[in-house]
Amino acid sequence: MSKHVYKMVELVGSSSEGCDDAIRTAIAKAGATLKHIDWFEVLETRGHVVDGAIAHWQVTIKVGFRVED
Fold first, then answer.
1. Which domain of life is it from (predicted)?
2. Which domains, and CATH codes, for the chain?
């Protein structure tokens, strides 16, 4: 197994569907410009409430991607 070096970036994804969708949105957008994404870590979950109901989710994640050799 070779040794890897990772770079981490922090992202905030949002969705009106749920926190899972907010994570997927952030990773999909990052994947358009970053190569070799290997993992993510959820740091924070927030929500926006309107008239007593959840209107929007925001999830802050760290994404780790391999630095090319």
1. Bacteria
2. 6-66 (3.30.1660.10)
